[in-house]
Amino acid sequence: MKRPLEPSAEGRGRIVGITDGVFAIALTLIVLEIRVPSQEAIHSEHELLAAIGALAPRFLTYALSFLTLTIFWFGQQAQHGLIARSDRRLATLNLCFLAFIALLPFSTDLLADFLHFRTAVLVYWLNLLMLGVTLFASWHYAAKSGLLAEGVDAETTRTVYLRIVKAQILWAIGAALCFVSPLLSVGFILVAQLGYAATPSSRWIRKIIG
Amino acid sequence: MKRPLEPSAEGRGRIVGITDGVFAIALTLIVLEIRVPSQEAIHSEHELLAAIGALAPRFLTYALSFLTLTIFWFGQQAQHGLIARSDRRLATLNLCFLAFIALLPFSTDLLADFLHFRTAVLVYWLNLLMLGVTLFASWHYAAKSGLLAEGVDAETTRTVYLRIVKAQILWAIGAALCFVSPLLSVGFILVAQLGYAATPSSRWIRKIIG
Amino acid sequence: MKRPLEPSAEGRGRIVGITDGVFAIALTLIVLEIRVPSQEAIHSEHELLAAIGALAPRFLTYALSFLTLTIFWFGQQAQHGLIARSDRRLATLNLCFLAFIALLPFSTDLLADFLHFRTAVLVYWLNLLMLGVTLFASWHYAAKSGLLAEGVDAETTRTVYLRIVKAQILWAIGAALCFVSPLLSVGFILVAQLGYAATPSSRWIRKIIG
Amino acid sequence: MKRPLEPSAEGRGRIVGITDGVFAIALTLIVLEIRVPSQEAIHSEHELLAAIGALAPRFLTYALSFLTLTIFWFGQQAQHGLIARSDRRLATLNLCFLAFIALLPFSTDLLADFLHFRTAVLVYWLNLLMLGVTLFASWHYAAKSGLLAEGVDAETTRTVYLRIVKAQILWAIGAALCFVSPLLSVGFILVAQLGYAATPSSRWIRKIIG
Predict the structure, then answer these.
(1) Residues with Cβ within 8 Å of residue C7, at least 6 apart in sequence
(2) Which residues of chain D are within 8 Å of residue B21 when distances are taken between CB atoms?
(3) How far apart are CA D189 and CA D170, in angstroms?
(4) Which residue among A102, B45, B181, D49 has the highest number of C-beta atoms inside a 10 angstrom radius?
């Protein structure tokens, strides 16, 4: 007998659909903050070049956001590749994760506009933290409720946890650095994220970033 | 022989696709109303913190919208998980549902800007009501036209109706409270929606919210 | 041996994916023109009610756009349900169709802002016409190139053509009415579209609208 | 035993999903720059016609962007139709490709606003170049890492490379022309892109554009 919203493979498929949708939009929205210089202010090649140069911080935070979205897209995918079915609570946890993904363009813009302010760095970090918390919670729930695919052993389960925790520790260190200097803090986070996105093969680095 | 737009499983798949698309966009658009404070107005950490604090009502209505979208995403999914095929009229009913989903960012912003006005609460409630009406109509049509999956019995059919009606009764009570106080009304609706989103296991609460 | 971009079922699947994406975004974007009244201008329930009432033409053109998108979503779907494989040219024709779908929010806003101007009605009609032209061309190409599914007979092929042509004739009549009165013209188009969206069972109406 | 983010067909499916999402949004966003003339400035049919005429360059760059997106959508699809599985690095390369797709609305607007400036042409060309570089890199990585589908022979692999390189050579020539005249440069690029989008059957042209 069929009941509404039972744990199912279809429910899992729909989570994947809405997740890819939100990521696609977030990836595109963060570009909207890179605004074309106004025509009135530009009268020569030189002025146009200068105006584009002035957009450099925007391109930097675009790259940073893009990296972050990439990392969490993989984070979500690493989990869902190991989950066979989804029930309503797992879906709700995933939607909470998406709610914080949808907030990333906001916290990134805030960071871009107030790069020298500790508050902006901390808000950005809080967003990263909540992404980690929701990912952790949804993995915990899936493992506990028997929604994982067959062939996912205890070690793999542990690896998924460890990756989340290690990344959060790195970002927490990065965020703490803002009490020394906000720019140093952003630089540290950026380097950490480059490390994750590049998925280096060096065994030494892999050990640190999980 | 193949005819255009016959009831089909593919038609059902496309409804799912466009539905997840609209929800993904709506989830992302409601964040756009949370605007980064202007750089000119901020000169210290303290001012930035105050400016972010002033965004609190925006974050609250974001949470409210997010909850609403979550609840209706599940509502649509609960139905479509039980529907095997879709014809043109069912698809049209589903698109009407999506039209009101697309209006949610508008009615939520209205509510956020005019939290103390009865009119804003009633417009928001009207949006919730129309979502319920279109969901009810599409379930009624699917059940009547033999588009349900095999193994969906009368009791399940009734459960789907009941969930919609019970939620609408709760929201109608919430909306009616705006004649006492608009804030009380919003609070009541928020609590009701939290109840749905959290899917509590308590049997007592489940009986009320269906 | 595999070659890039051969006619394939996967190519067809991707057209469906990008089509549903563009429609989902267009459905959501047309709502963005319904703007929440500014807080500064509103000081009483009465003023808020009046401000919302003043948005009525926006809601009307939203409904009109929504109907149009619905009709063309079904038009595209009616075709693609009968198409088994897609090659690059068919995909290009479909993207041209999507380019005019993406222009609909523009021509609808123009219509909403200049409801009494013939030019606005004609631009809107031109958009509808181009949607018909691209749909016609892609059906023609698919039929000619053997990309249709098995079991699609000559009569079905003709029905698809006829539906497109009949709708275009109705809209052309509607557009021509703008030389009598732009409002009459919009009214006529709105009624024609309601007829299509409602898919009436009356045999008499079905004969006219195909 | 299942491990997170192993090369898989599912990973490939998700790349397709997010790619179609980003393209759908980019296709729709480039239209947003075509703004409806303000109601205050228009008092007659004649003025409205003139205002719409003044939007002509916007429609032109819309067509140009649309062509570009079409070409790269096919470029990505040509590759992914030949790729059987995807691992994390291939996905990252694809996301880098999407990052430059997401930048296209920016560089196109810049071009539309500063059509007579060499800098704008070069920025636009740089965007095209980076799209080619990321496509080339991801094909190179997929071929090298054994992620291609069975039945993809050396000649097909070479054809995919050649198409990318030939297109980039044409665009580089186009970009170089901006030192003669920016408009000539844009015209050349537009013609080259029309050639790709139209997929002419003439053997002579096919040889040039690959």
Answers:
(1) C85, C86, C87, C147
(2) 21, 24
(3) 8
(4) A102
Residue B1 has pLDDT above 60, yes or no: no
Q: Do the beta carbons of residue C91 and residue C11 sit within 8 Å?
A: yes
Is there a domain that residue C55 lies in?
yes
Residue B4 lies inside a defined structural domain of this protein:
no
Instruction: Note whether B77 contacts A11, CB cutoff 8 Å.
Output: yes
- Three-state DSSP state, B138: helix
| Domain span at C143 | 9-209
Contact C101/B at CB under 8 A: no
Q: Is pLDDT of C208 > 60?
A: no
* Domain-located, residue C4: no
Query: D: neighbours with 3+ CB pairs under 8 Å?
Result: A, B, C
Q: Residue type for B83, please?
A: I
With 0-12 CB in 10 A as exposed, 13-18 as middle and 19+ as buried, what is C134? buried
> Which ranges of chain D have pLDDT less than 70?
1-3, 5, 199-210
The answer on pLDDT for A210 being more than 60 is no
**Residue D2 covered by a domain:** no
Residues forming beta bridges with residue D83, ordered by sequence position? D148
B66 contacts in chain A (CB < 8 Å): 95, 99
Average of per-residue pLDDT values in chain D: 86
Check residue D3 and give left, alpha or beta (phi > 0: left; psi -120 to 50: alpha).
Answer: beta
Contact yes or no for A192/A209 (Cβ under 8 A): yes
pLDDT score at B77: 87
Q: For chain A, how many structural domains are there in total?
A: 1
> For residues B1 and A210, what is the distance between their CA atoms, to the nearest angstrom?
56
Question: What three-state secondary structure class fits D148?
Answer: strand
